[in-house]
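Friendly challenge for the regulars: who can give me the structure tokens for this chain first? No prize, just bragging rights.
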Amino acid sequence: MFESIKFKGNHNFLGLPNEDTTMETAKAVILPVPYDSTTSYRSGTRDGPGAILAASRNVELYDIQLGCEPLNFGVHTLPELEPDMSGPGAMVESVESAVGEILRVDKLPVILGGEHSLSTGSVRALEKHYGKNLSILQLDAHADLRDSYENTPFNHASVMRRVMEIAHLVQVGIRNISKGEMAFVKETRHDGIFWAHDMIDGFEKHIPQIVERLKTNVFISIDLDVFDPSIMPAVGTPEPGGLNWQQVLALLHAVVDNKNVIGFDVMELCPIPGNIAPDFLAAKLVFKLLGEIFRKNAWISDSGEQS
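First reply, four minutes later:
Bragging rights claimed.
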């Protein structure tokens, strides 16, 4: 298994011993991908996965809302996926292969980025595995719908254009888009965008509409710049006017409750030396979303024991 895929390093989410939850016994598998070849403003997202894993060791294992320790068993962390510097297209293929292997052994893939372009590889693998009954829920400040940027169709600014060629796309929190992307939205009559400025009158009332737009199987792709920079400054392309922690958790809870979440990624953390709060937010986000999925799938009992 994974013989043809190159990894480096070895860190484990939450600091849990990997030998307690092997690849075979895990419900979810975390794949760190340190890569930022096409970042266009502030580079450094290659350090994001390591920062998330380091911060996760300080996340309390007890979840107040769930009333248990949901992830003591059932999560296995792979070594970092080795970057392929021959080009972003090749890196997307590497992610596709790795995620495909995780799906082949019937595990929930969780990808830690790394720049957002990598999500194309995950979606390719998911579409091959699940077919057309698939939606991508993108939480992001940017539409990422450029056909190409800086001479590559696999730029982080083009990731959702590639995703739309594969699967149904719903976008939430968008508050920055180019003229060309806007023309594409109108031309294709893409109506799956929930603009941040349209939700200032009460985010929660839009949640049922978002859930309704999604198909049965949902992959959640989270660019951390969906959060307002006041709580998430450690991103490559910050944008004012973002969502807050409780809004994002409320949406994720509703999606997990009403749909079949088949994986997710958390992308674009660009760590700031000396400021650990954003790293911890990202780690806690992974913890909370995994806990929700474990609860929904009955992978934990009321006492927190693995089922």
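The two ends are 25 Å apart (CA to CA). The chain has one domain: 7-296. Your move, everyone else.
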